[in-house]
Amino acid sequence: MRPSFNLELGHWIYLLAHLFSMSSRSLGYHGNVLFSRTSEGAQSTEIGDSLSYNTAITWRLNNHNRTLHDHNQHSEIQWDLMLEMNGVSTRKTRKATTSEGSSGGNTLFLSPGLRVTLGKFNAFATFGIPLIQNSNGIQENVEKRMIAGVSFAM
User: Fold this and answer.
1) How many whole angstroms separate alpha carbon 27 and alpha carbon 63?
2) Could you give the CA distance from residue 63 to residue 76 in angstroms, rounded to a whole number?
3) Predicted local distance difference test score (pLDDT) of residue 135
4) Could you give the count of Cα atoms lying within 13 Å of 148 in the half-sphere of its Cβ?
5) What is the pTM of this model?
6) Number of H-type helices and E-type strands within the chain
7) Which residue from 31, 116, 118, 129 is spatially nearest to 74, judged by alpha carbons?
8) Following DSSP, what letter does each residue of 18-45 receive, concatenated?
9) Predicted confidence (pLDDT) per residue in 43-93, tens digit
């Protein structure tokens, strides 16, 4: 693709992350931080660096007096209620020496959800409600969001 059609052709994205997870009986505590730094692209454009931060509390619904999140249980479906705080802070996009006024900002969501696990398979869905939206310039505000996913542990 020619650089004129993709202003970010030729850039690099560097990622640095830290996460934690611990459980006690039917409660689980989880969190992560991800920093994303971009280099300048082919046409002197740099998408703003970002910092994502998430924390969650989970509650196992069908504990049956077993230790929470016992990954050796492969035959029983496990159901977890989740309550998450999801945030992202993004710097403004820069073209050459000028920052775009309508880019970057901070957003924080409260996201209740549900997770189901069977052996190494996991599916989840959350519904996010914005608590804080501080966008720079003219940007669309998010009224709500839904995120769903499926994963397989190796």
Assistant:
1) 10
2) 11
3) 84
4) 4
5) 0.75
6) 0, 10
7) 118
8) EEEEEEETTEEEEEEEEEEEE---TTSE
9) 777 777 899 999 999 999 987 655 445 555 557 899 999 999 999 998 877
